[in-house]
Amino acid sequence: MSGDNPAIHILPAPLPTAWPEPTVGAVALLAAGSTIAQAAVVTTPSPWRAVQPMLTARPARQLIIASNHRSALDRAAQDLSGPPTLVGIGGGLAMDAAKYIAKVNRQKLIQLPGSAANNACFTRTAWVMDGETRTAERNCPIPDAVLVVPELIAAAPDRLNRAGFAEILCSHTALFDWSLGHEAGHDVQWDEGLRGLARAQLAALDTLAPGVAAGELSAFLEIVTISARFAPGFASHPKARFNAGSEHIFAWALEAASGGTVLHGEAVGLGTVLMALLQDNDPARAAQLARSAGLPLRPEAMGASWAMVEGLAPALAARAAASDWYTVLNALGERLESAFVDAMPRLRALIEDTEARTEPALAAPISAGSGSDANARGPAPFCS
Predict the structure, then answer these.
(1) Strands 126-130 and 61-64: what pairing?
(2) From CA 301, how far away is CA 280, in angstroms rounded?
(3) CB neighbour burial string for 68-103, b if at least 16 within 10 angstroms, e if fewer
(4) Contact in structure between 113 and 91 (CB atoms under 8 Å)
(5) Cβ neighbours for 334, distance < 8 A, ≥ 6 positions apart
(6) Residue 255: Cβ within 10 Å count
(7) C-alpha distances in angstroms, 171 versus 36, 68, 71, 283, 370?
(8) Residue 370 three-state SS
(9) By the 8 A CB rule, do 70 and 132 touch?
(10) N or C: which end of the chain has fewer CB within 10 A?
(11) Segments of the chain assigned E as strands
(12) How does residue 373 score in pLDDT terms, banded at 50, 70 and 90?
């Protein structure tokens, strides 16, 4: 669906080279309205419905994106090629589509996240489907602005916003994987400063978790703020795995097995606990933090099943072999499948023990088409 305003043809301006600080609050909302009047918008239904009443102007062009297949994105790039600025509004699908289209058209990029569910607006990678293969489209433009509208975050379901907690918690296992790669002599752009940054954000999760579980908007906005702190490191050290590793490989495998019904962040949370077990890396702490934040840990609570999880060993081995990341999955080598099978009863026992000891807020189910459409990134094999 596109607007009927005439195309605007302006020569492309130089693109930014430094990551912008997010603009938060009423100023962000005003900026969104004034920007959109001269921009093309790519979005998904739920966040567009939520943001429309907040805007003071119509976009020059607007497109509801339904697929991240390359052919669909190339058609969208043609449809939205006139205006000099592209605004992405929504979750992972809209953010990635905006990055891809802005790269193709050399447009200025502005991102307006529809929830705290993922960090797509803070990375230069767009995930694109080539047939059945999920491909990383790297070196997408750094946005001119990231506009964080609290009213829009608040409009997303609490469960969707809570899922973003896992995108910080995942540094628990990612840092371990990053160290493994560094010690094995791989080019992982090791950086003590980024390691310290990630560890500091992990240390803050004990304080953040209760607010996330309780559905407090300030806690959801803090998730976005922490993700923003990682953005310069994502841009300057694209091979550094300080915030994504084996737990994300697990999450993409589980999302694919479920047919895309599992929320990405919830899959990452479970993956963090499981990979911490395989790493012998304080899995009890990972489980306790996830539970304290209200994240579900049982597969059936996130739209999967234990049988689905237990059957992922071959897919994990294949994904690890195909990935340019070095993680515990690679380090285990031929022992991966047996180690995975051996970890399953320990994972069940750990989850049962954690549930008995830690009381979270109850997570309400997310109905189809609600909130930020944040999980619609296509069937998964990757958040960098």
Answers:
(1) unpaired
(2) 25
(3) beeeebeebbebbbbbbbbbbbbbbbbbbbbbbbbb
(4) yes
(5) none
(6) 26
(7) 35, 26, 33, 13, 28
(8) coil
(9) no
(10) N
(11) 23-24, 39-43, 61-64, 85-90, 108-113, 126-130, 133-137, 145-148
(12) low
Spatial separation of the C-alpha atoms in residues 296 and 301, rounded to whole Å:
6
Q: Residue 176 corresponds to which tokens in the numbers above? A: 């371990």
SS3 state of residue 56: coil
Considering the chain, tell me which residue range(s) the CATH 3.40.50.1970 domain(s) occupy. 23-155
Question: CA–CA separation, 357 vs 312, rounded Å?
Answer: 28
Does 382 score more than 50 pLDDT?
A: no
Q: How confident is the model at residue 221 (pLDDT cuts 50, 70, 90)?
A: very high
| Per-residue model confidence as pLDDT tens digits over 22-78 | 989 877 887 888 888 899 999 999 999 999 998 888 999 999 999 999 999 999 999
Could you tell me which residues come within 8 angstroms of residue 376 by beta carbon, excluding any fewer than 6 positions away?
Answer: 44, 68, 91, 92, 93, 260
Q: Which single residue is written with the structure tokens 């395989």?
A: 278
Q: Which of 223, 236, 87 is nearest to 147 (CA)?
A: 87
pLDDT in tens, 132-172: 888 889 999 999 999 999 999 999 999 999 999 999 999 99
Q: Residues of 51-61 as b/e, b for ≥16 C-beta within 10 angstroms?
A: beeebeeebbb
CATH number of 158-357: 1.20.1090.10
Which residues of the chain does CATH 1.20.1090.10 include? 158-357
Where is average pLDDT lowest: 114-118, 130-134, 230-234?
130-134
CA 45/CA 93 separation, integer angstroms: 11
Q: Are 102 and 74 within 8 A, CB to CB?
A: no
Sorted by sequence, the CB contacts under 8 Å of residue 83 that are 6+ apart come out as: 7, 8, 10, 38, 39, 40, 60, 61, 107
CB contact at 8 A, 350 and 284: yes
| C-alpha–C-alpha distance, residues 185 and 354, integer Å | 36
CATH of 23-155, one of 3.40.50.150, 3.40.190.10, 3.40.50.1970, 2.30.30.700: 3.40.50.1970
Q: What is the DSSP string of 140-203?
A: PPPPSEEEE-HHHHHHS-HHHHHHTTHHHHTHHHHHHHHHHHHHTT------HHHHHHHHHHHH
